């Protein structure tokens, strides 16, 4: 039997005419290219949110010629270094050491470890009442008596009372660590990279009595660089601005055991400055001394870590060391004022006030915001120092578009860098030295589909 293959009858498909095929492929090509072009343009239009712009103005630190072995001037609000002289030379810091204990105590209160009203018992070791007060500043308080954390802190910060600093350090340290280890731990936390510590009072090791470190030389003393001292002062002022008011206190008032009938009064460093030193200083720019801490040794001479304010309200952290003999009180203040005067003679300030639009960009686009754009304004004032030889206004990075889900008017959405050549203290974050921007008002946030739609829009 012969088998024949089975065939299915299918009508042969006719090809479209050539001209129609050309038209269809042409339209498809146009559609693909148009889509690619649209998405490509959207990508390139929106990918760069922040763009550098403008010439960098010179705000680098000047070399100070002040009559002191070392000196440093810092903008107290941004940490910009304005003037320096041997800023990284390690020096004996004496009572300026007390700033480290002060910062540790303030942190302990913030952390809830104790309160200002918590009583601290004076130990036998921290009782210095029998020592010469002219050589070893101390309170009239004895072993077994108590003062509050607040009283001891105020005494340490305003009269440089050694017993107050030693008692506070003993109180705040861990039971397992020595006072030296306590100081080293906090120095590490503040990134004081070139400092050595022995006792909280800042005494030369042989004059630290019960706090003498037996493994160290008799002449060993707390040391740090002017930069380290500026870092301590900057962190204290930034985190605890209320300390600026301590220098206004003319007298220290304290009551051992809380007995107000036995209240004692002692002249503060600020009071001594106002009564005996201020009127002797050459102060042509009428600068205000707001603090912070004196300290000197026979080797390092007169020294002061200061806080100075000019007539426009700008504040400067200053460090001087080797300003006259260590027994002289006037020269350390005069050198401090001279250093700030040098800076003000060589720099102009350019300030951006809070509530302003970003210079060079009135509206910043934001694909997460309803409508696809939201205006950003400055959240805080920032001041930048530029050498007077520089011309023109300070510019900032341009914000072409910034996609952020932070749409509250309380949020810092971004920090924009200034186009300035400058150096800053170690530990100063970009948010502290840059210009912080926030939303002008609360804006509604879109969902993912709304975000994608806005992202594909082209903005002028």
From TrEMBL:
GO terms for molecular function: hydrolase activity. It comes from Fructobacillus papyrifericola. Gene3D superfamilies: DD-peptidase/beta-lactamase superfamily. Pfam families: Peptidase_S11 (PF00768). Coiled coil: none annotated. Belongs to the peptidase S11 family. Keywords: Cell shape, Cell wall biogenesis/degradation, Hydrolase, Membrane, Peptidoglycan synthesis, Signal, Transmembrane, Transmembrane helix. SUPFAM superfamilies: beta-lactamase/transpeptidase-like. This is Serine hydrolase. The keyword Isomerase does not apply. Residues 63-323 form the Peptidase S11 D-alanyl-D-alanine carboxypeptidase A N-terminal domain.
């Amino acid at each position: 039997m012969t088998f024949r293959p089975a065939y299915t009858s299918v009508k042969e498909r006719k090809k479209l005419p050539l001209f129609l095929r050309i038209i269809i492929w042409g339209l498809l090509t146009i559609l693909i290219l148009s889509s690619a072009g649209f998405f490509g343009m959207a990508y390139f239009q929106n990918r760069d949110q922040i763009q550098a712009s403008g010439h960098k103005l010179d705000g680098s630190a000047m070399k100070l010629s002040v009559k002191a072995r070392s000196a440093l001037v810092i903008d107290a609000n941004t940490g910009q270094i304005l003037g320096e002289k041997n800023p990284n030379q390690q020096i004996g810091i004496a009572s300026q050491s007390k700033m480290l204990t002060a910062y540790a105590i303030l942190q302990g209160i913030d952390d809830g470890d104790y309160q200002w009203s918590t009583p601290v018992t004076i130990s036998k070791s921290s009782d210095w009442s029998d020592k010469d007060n002219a050589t070893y500043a101390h309170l009239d308080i004895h072993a077994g008596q108590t003062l509050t954390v607040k009283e001891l802190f105020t005494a340490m910060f305003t009269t440089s009372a050694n017993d107050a600093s030693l008692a506070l350090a003993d109180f705040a340290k861990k039971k397992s660590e020595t006072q030296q280890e306590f100081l080293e731990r906090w120095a590490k936390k503040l990134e004081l990279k070139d400092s050595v510590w022995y006792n909280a009072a800042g005494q030369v090791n042989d004059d630290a009595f019960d706090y003498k470190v037996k493994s160290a030389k008799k002449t060993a003393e707390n040391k740090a660089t002017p930069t380290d001292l500026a870092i301590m002062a900057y962190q204290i002022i930034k985190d605890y601005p209320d300390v600026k008011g301590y220098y206004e206190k003319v007298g220290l008032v304290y009551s051992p055991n809380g007995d107000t009938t036995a209240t004692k009064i002692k002249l503060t460093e600020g009071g001594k400055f106002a009564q005996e030193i201020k009127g002797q200083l050459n102060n042509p720019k009428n600068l205000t001394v707001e603090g912070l801490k004196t300290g000197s040794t026979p080797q390092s001479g007169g020294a002061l870590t200061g806080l100075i304010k000019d007539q426009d309200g700008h504040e400067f952290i200053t460090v001087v060391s080797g300003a006259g003999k260590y027994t002289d009180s006037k020269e350390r203040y005069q050198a401090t004022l001279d250093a700030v005067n040098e800076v003000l003679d060589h720099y102009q300030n350019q300030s951006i006030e809070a509530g302003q639009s970003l210079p060079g960009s009135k509206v910043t686009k934001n694909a997460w915001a309803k409508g696809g754009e939201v205006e950003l304004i400055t959240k805080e004032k920032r001041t930048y120092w530029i050498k007077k030889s520089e011309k023109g206004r300070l510019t900032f990075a341009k914000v072409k578009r910034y996609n952020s889900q932070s749409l509250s008017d309380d949020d810092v959405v971004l920090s924009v860098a200034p186009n300035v050549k400058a150096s800053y203290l170690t530990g100063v974050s970009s948010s502290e030295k840059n210009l912080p921007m926030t939303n002008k008002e609360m804006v509604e946030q879109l969902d993912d589909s709304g975000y994608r739609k806005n992202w594909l829009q082209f903005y002028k």
